[in-house]
Amino acid sequence: MGPVLVLTEYFVIVTGSNDRQVKAIVDEVEKRLREAGVRVIGREGEQQATWVLIDFGEIVLHVFQPAEREFYRLERLWGDAPRVELPESILASADAPGGSAVL
Prior knowledge:
The protein has one domain (about 15-90): Beta Polymerase, domain 2, CATH 3.30.460. Helices cover about 35% and strands about 20% of the residues. It contains 4 helices and 5 strands. Strands 2-3-4-1-5 form a 5-stranded mixed sheet. The protein starts with 9 loop residues before the first strand and ends with a strand. About 15% of the residues are buried. The model is unreliable at about 95-103 (pLDDT under 50).
C-alpha cells in the first residue's frame, strides 16, 4: 500500500465464512502479533463481525464475511497497490475451509 496510501504499508484481506470464524481469525492474528510485540492502534466492526478492521500501524487487517468482501471489493478499490505473495506456511493456514488471504 505504501506507494498508494501513506497511512499504512500493508492491507491484509481475509475472508471468514461466518461471524464466529471472523472473530476467531481476528483473535488469533491479534494474539500472535501481540506475542511478537506489535500493538493494536485501532479496531472497528467487532460487534457485528461482518467486517472487522484492526489497525496495527504498518499493517491493517480486514476480515470479511463473503458478502461484505464482495460488496466492498477492497482488492479492486486499491488495485494500483502492489500485491505481495504470502509465504506458503501462511497460505496453508488460510486454505482452511472458508478462509482466504490477500496482502
